[in-house]
Design brief:
Layout lengths: L1 H18 L5 H18 L6 H33 L5 H29 L4 H7 L1 H5 L5
Length: about 140
């Protein structure tokens, strides 16, 4: 719940920051992505629930900022390059492609990870136990 609320707050606040011309959408995206990288790298140092909650809230805000800045950049690119009567279609196609890759990416990553659960040399050493972990033949 904290992530969702901070995601919404991040979208609203980042939109406000861009509308005040404090940062451009591209700079906001860069700052949020770099900050998110640092927050993720520091996550193993979180030892208490309060730390995890703080990371969750901060990361939710950053995710909202990244999402809103990417959509803004996408809309700016569409408006600047596509004729007015095709802008809705292009926006829909762009988002459809994004959603397809968002849906297909995790299963592909899972298959790649699953197939690497044990190597051939480990299979020779361990035998049937390796197959029971689910690695393909």
């Amino acid at each position: 719940m904290a992530f969702g609320l901070s995601d919404i707050a991040g979208r609203v606040l980042s939109g406000h920051i861009v509308s005040l011309h404090v940062l451009t959408p591209r700079r906001l995206y860069t700052v949020a992505a770099l900050t998110g990288t640092v927050v993720t790298a520091l996550l193993p140092l979180a030892t208490k629930h309060v730390h995890l909650l703080a990371v969750n809230v901060l990361f939710g805000w950053l995710e909202g900022a990244i999402t809103s800045s990417v959509v803004t950049l996408q809309l700016q690119a569409i408006v600047n390059t596509v004729s007015t009567n095709l802008q809705g279609r292009v926006f829909g196609i762009c988002n459809g492609v994004f959603l397809i890759f968002s849906a297909v990416g995790p299963p592909i990553a899972g298959v790649c990870t699953f197939s690497k659960t044990c190597s051939r040399s480990e299979e020779r050493r361990v035998g049937k136990e390796c197959r029971s972990r689910g690695a393909p033949d």
